[in-house]
Amino acid sequence: MTSLNVNNQPVAYQIDPQTPLLWALRDASNLTGTKYGCGTGHCGACTVDVDGRAVRSCRMTIAQAEGTFVTTIEGLSADRAHPLQLAFLAGNVVQCGFCVPGIVMAAAALIRRNPDPDEDAIRAAITNICRCGIYPRLTDAIRRAAAAMRGEEVIPAGARPGIEPADAARVVPALSPR
Fold it and tell me: How far apart are CA 108 and CA 75, in angstroms?
């Protein structure tokens, strides 16, 4: 049994200790915000926070994560109100959205280490790949979120995107055949 803390909850995985953290999070914990992209650690879609560091979860086994504190996009903010999430929405950063959870988690780790990152620091820390090319807006959103976290700016919440998380997994009755 492999024990770690996921989104501030103790978890004991009863699966092979060599299972990548990505699959433990997605399949065993049903935390599907962490995405599978390349499986080699290059794209960053699977980035999570492990003890304050941005980690590519496809390249870390749960045995390697034993005893750590892991935060996924779901654990960043229960109500989607983290300054990074608000800045991404306010700046219209998101296009397809597939890479965004990993980028947000990498940015959160960066801002924790460096509360006032300049463009060079952001480019060095955010090595995630985005096929949509959100990079110009991304830098601005990260700087804006950092300013909000320092108390220098307020990012309005605006309308909440998408559906409520509780509704995302509800069972929909089957349609009767005609």
Answer: 12
Query: For 3, phi and psi rounded to 5 degrees?
Result: -110, 135
Read off the pTM: 0.86
The rounded distance, in Å, linking the Cα atoms of 56 and 44 is: 6
Which structural domains are found in the chain, ordered by start?
A: 2-76 (3.10.20.30), 83-149 (1.10.150.120)
Q: 5-46: per-residue pLDDT in tens?
A: 999 999 999 999 999 999 999 999 999 999 999 999 999 999
* DSSP character string of 41-59: SSS-TTEEEETTEEEEGGG
Token representation of residue 148: 């909000």
Edge-first strand listing for the sheet containing 69-71: 9-13, 2-6, 69-71, 47-50, 53-56
Q: What tokens were used for 128?
A: 């995630």
Structural contact between residues 142 and 113, judged by C-beta atoms closer than 8 angstroms: no
Nearest of 6, 147, 29, 128 to residue 75 by alpha carbon = 6
Distances from the Cα of 123 to the Cαs of 13, 35, 85, 140, in angstroms? 35, 21, 19, 11
